[in-house]
Amino acid sequence: MPDPISWAYAWPYLAAAFVFSYLVGSVPFGLLLTRLFRAGDLRKIGSGNIGATNVLRTGRKDLAAATLVLDAGKGALAVLLAAHYGPDTALVAGFGAFLGHLFPVWLRFRGGKGVAVTLGVLLALSWPLGLGVFAVWLATAAAFRYSSLAALVAAALAPVLAWWIARDLQLVEFVAALAVVVWLRHLDNIARLVRGTEGRIGRKDKA
């Protein structure tokens, strides 16, 4: 389905969608919630990451769950708002929110690893795809108790699921790009998984 905007005039909409979505994606909900409820400085706990897995290491499961929902929600919100201007604009917005979470301007570009926001983006683009990726993450996490491994497996299978569910090459390429970045953000986790020193879900180890 083509965008309802002539490509001769599309770039202002695409630029606006990217900037707005980047700012939405850069809101560090994990850090804000742990500060608000005095659960400690998230950047000095565990891995120092601002995502839900590290929030869980504060011992506050409720805050970790809220962080997961809010981080996914900001990705979904960016896509859904931009989708009114066409599918290409939605993809640009999704990528903007993703990059905003990874490199938030408010935190000197030191953000999360992009798993939850990716899930939100995929749910908004194609809810069957989003649910499929989440199911893979959940099954892997339940079986092995490694959040990072679950993220890596889900990211690796996401492009395959995108092709199987949507048969949309543009969507597959977009999902593959997100998956590559997610893997790059988990290089330290991959090394710890190989060494057998990666922290499991529910423990306060570094991960």
Which short descriptors sum up this protein?
207 residues; mainly alpha; 10 helices; 68% helix; 0% strand
Write the layout of secondary structure elements.
Layout: H1 11-25, H2 29-36, H3 52-56, H4 61-82, H5 87-102, H6 115-125, H7 127-144, H8 147-166, H9 169-185, H10 187-195
Give me the Rg, rounded.
17 Å
Number of helices in the DSSP assignment: 10
The overall strand count is 0
The protein's oligomeric status is single chain
Estimate percent helicity.
Answer: 55-70%
Question: How would a crystallographer describe the biggest sheet?
Answer: none
Instruction: Tell me the structural class.
Output: mainly alpha
**What portion of the residues fall into strands of 2 or more residues?**
under 5%
Distance between the termini: 41 Å
Q: pLDDT below 50 for ≥5 consecutive residues: which ranges?
A: none
What is the element string, with H for helices and E for strands? HHHHHHHHHH
- The 3D shape can be described as globular
* Domain module tally: 1
Mean pLDDT: 91
How does this structure look, described?
The chain is an all-alpha fold and 207 residues long. It starts with 10 loop residues before the first helix and ends in a 12-residue tail after the last helix. The protein has one domain.
